Amino acid sequence: MKNSNQYVLITGATSGIGFELAKLFAKDGYNLVIVARDQGQLDAKAAELEQSGIRVISFAKDLFDPEQAFALYADLHAQDIRIDVLVNNAGQGVYGEFEDTDIDRELDIINLNISSLVVLTKLFLQDMTARNSGKILNTASIASKTPGPWQAVYHGTKAFVLSFTEAIREELRDTEITVTALMPGATNTDFFNKADMQDSKAVQDKDALSDPADVAKDGYEALMAGKDKVISGFKNKVQVGMGNLTPDSTVAHQVYEQQKPIDK
């Protein structure tokens, strides 16, 4: 298989968009390093992915702690495993008005969505730079383009991810390394359960949520084409386009209404 000597590292790889991305890489013959918190889930997903005839290595790491990101890199370095493609997919949110939400949980989310992503990008990018090859895919969100009442911290972290991705892509413009941002909208994953967001108006219509397989396909194709970013889904492209033409204060109010609880 043409990619049999290459390894892809995917965080948040046991469900949702991360697992769908893992399946696409496996289908194309890439070996995988999959990362999540639950070793049991990792083992089950590894067994499934290995049916494609590729090698899968799993690491149970809690990336709410950025030190675990440093440890992951050290573990791979010790095993002499070279990462050719880095997929920073792990991310979480928390639902509620900011004055009421738990600050410790929000700091954990900032560490997961930003700090650990930055650590992994820094360490593996330095290796990629040394050999002048590699690809990085960062899962941002269309939330990166709008203020996010009811999810103020999550939207803020995704704005960071998009800005960070675009900045380092420009720094690498004269190299053979590409950096791509994947920007899905609301997707049918476990994100809303983890964020305690089931009462939000935004998630009541399950049929309106994107299929994680479709989102992963958009991200995979954009990554392989070396694109700077991709907004997944026509509806989301329209939403971002309209948001670009609308004052931020108006967008913030629209998002407030879209995301508020169904009983308000």
From TrEMBL:
Cellular component terms per the entry's GO annotation: membrane
Going by the UniProt record, its keywords in alphabetical order are: Oxidoreductase
- Domain of life, per the record? Bacteria
The UniProt record lists the keyword Oxidoreductase: yes
Give the GO molecular function terms.
Answer: oxidoreductase activity
Against InterPro entries, the record matches this protein to:
NAD(P)-bd_dom_sf, SDR_fam
> Which Gene3D superfamilies does its entry note?
NAD(P)-binding Rossmann-like Domain
* Family of this protein: Belongs to the short-chain dehydrogenases/reductases (SDR) family.
This chain belongs to the protein called: Short-subunit dehydrogenase
Q: What is the lineage of its organism?
A: Bacteria, Pseudomonadati, Bacteroidota, Sphingobacteriia, Sphingobacteriales
